[in-house]
Fold each of these.
Amino acid sequence: MLRGQSQSGSGGKAQPGSAPGEQDALLAEAQSCFGRGELAKAETLLRQVLARAPEHPAALTTLAHIADRTGNLKAAVPLLRRAIAGNPRNVGLHNDLGIVLARLGDAKQAAGAFRRAIEINPDDPATHTNLGIWHQHNGAIDAAVKEFRRALEIDPRHLTARLNLSLTLQKAVAPWHFPMMNDAPRNALYDEAIRRIAPGRSVLDIGTGAGLLAMMAARAGARWVASCEAEPWIAAKAREVVTLNGLGDRITLIGKRSTELAIGRDLRERAEVLVTEIFGTTCINEHVIPTIEHAHAELLRPDAIVVPRAASLRGYLAGGPALEGYFFVDRAAGFELTPFNEFAQPTMGLPINNLPHEVLSDDFEIFRFDLTEPRFAAAERIIEVSARRAGRCFGVVQWLRLELGEDITYENRPRPGPTIDSWGHMLHSFSRPIALDVGERLRLLAAHNRQHFLICDLAAEAAGASAPR
């Protein structure tokens, strides 16, 4: 639907012998029919208005809205252009034309219509919002954010601008960037590791985000620092951050994926150090393995130092009704609901620190990836875990461990109490809850295909594991 602010007054010049009052009555009835969805009747009445006043802006505009409603966008364009000719300073008409042209794929003329509306009235929030939506659809994130914020400066309660600003910011920068940047323990450990190895060495930072690791390397005395970021609008903002901190002349920011970089074009030479924080909660889900492999093959020296030098997936067996309720259902309101468990999610990210649960085993390693190695193969393994306490086990709580350097380790193992957690935790459910006694062993299958991993129970072979109770 059109979202401009078209005015619907009579506006057109009457033909000789016609009665303006009659036109107004026909127009009012037509618009009433349009509002009720009686489009055919509305169109008939509007044609009668145009027979008396062929360039009547409001009648032309309402016909354009009917064309839009019925999916005939091409017919709406000449109607709106005729309406604009009769009322050239009507901001809503220019907005409507811009919306139709954008939906027809005519990006250049759509932008022209919105900009003409801004020339007429620079303080119209709807126009800035429409232009922001146009920028958003065309990938100009910074420009879209600027227009939405301008609309909200004019009208802080403009709902469409506020909703689209939120949507655009989420597209531009995932929300997890902020807890990551505010994770003081993680930052301190990365900084300590980088201070040890960066001085006098060339450093490549992959996935720079706001540029934090690159600035750590430059501050530590790196010979040169090159930092890449796949999203161009994030790279542009990182340049602002780096310049704000007085390091603009010491860090080269490149708005490309690392796999698009080339020695001699983007980097002066192979780097001696790689620093990165591109890990997701499940370690390898952010294309980590192909990215690290490409870096070793094309961008790093053979003896390059990698921070972190290794990344691990770790976990423990978990139980307790608070968490089990996220995966399984038994009875509710007196009804048996267990067949619905077939739809249970095998994996879920949850704020484990804030959810009471039972730790039923010691911590165990699921997979460890040595990031100094040049190649990684898909793998699977069987893990045997002993219950250290009795309980009803529903799955595995999993977290991330990074070996940043010699005796420098970051690990976000769940712990009670408030905390800012960079990577969060995952829950991996079993096929069914399993009742375990102390000392009983559970056999788990862990597998990864270089991008995704799973861990699940081999309950049928579990030594001595009893049926659910």
Amino acid sequence: MNDSAPLADRMRPRTIGEVVGQQHLVGRDKPLTKVIETGNLFSIIFWGPPGTGKTTLARIISSQTGASFIEYSAVSAKKSDVMAVVKAARDLLKANGRRTVLFIDEIHRFTKAQQDAFLPYVEDGSIVLIGATTENPSFEVISPLLSRCRVFVLEPLSSEDLSKIINRGADELGVRVAEEAKEYLISFSSNDARKALNLLEETLRLYQEVSLENLKLALQSKHLRYDRVGDDHYDTVSAFIKSLRASNVDAALYYLARMVDAGEDPLFIARRMVVFASEDIGMAAPTALVVANGVFRACETIGYPECQENLAHGVVYLAKAPKDRAAYNAYMAALADVKGHGNLPIPLSIRNAPTKLMKDLGYGRGYEKYTRESLLPEEIKGHKYYDSSPQQ
């Protein structure tokens, strides 16, 4: 490994025995250990938080089974890239029986069409696909591809795991890390080993000593500030939604730009917009939900960088749309009754009556299509949830 490579890369385990954490996968007689021992390769989806070892495990599996390893990020990979890999993999397999592992990082960012493109080659064994994702693959990976892969869930690293990794990093750098500084690194990392090692190395580079004070100073470095699973992530999303709610177009666009520039998943942003369209705009402009769903679909189909224009279009529309929370408030009031009263008996007049016995028991008796009666269970009859006047 090049000495100029980041510490997290230089520290990357080379064998399954060096892996810290994920013992449910790499311990004795566990699935990934068995894969390496038997050489029985199959396609895999690794699902787990950032910095838990998804890329590392893919590289180890490839290396220790003697397979060729090709890595792409779904953010930048094109269909033509995948087709070139398939051709090379087929040639290699035909020439000497060596298999090829195609590792796709952030596979959830591949569009459905891109995933469809390499499905046949996973199915016929031309390539062994290993995908890594922080998102639930049930929603982000197409069903035919998912059914041909084993999904392994990676757990967040424990404090003990992170402590071991930080100690190894300190040894690699030849530096001593005080206990309070180590605790701060563990807390800051949010279970992400890469974050802990990056901050450790950055602090030493800037201040030549790793202390609690120097760690906090180094954390002000711009490239370390936005964390997709940390406080800045949630603060920015919160500011984005509140700007939309206030109909402040400029602020909403600014916070959108911050998220996009930091590499936030466009589908995460678009999902928040879909929720906002019903929760905060609702019946004041029902087409807002159509627009928001259109933005989500565009992000899903096109991806970065072009879909940032779709996001901007949707943000301007949602910010400028009139706001009405009546439908949302009404549903929450109805939900409160459900939780408070449980499953109350449904009035007989509106029950389904598919059999003679049920009709004899009074099911459906007295039902009028256009009745103005409450139709709610007796215990909450007359309750009103929806107020058609605009609700802010």
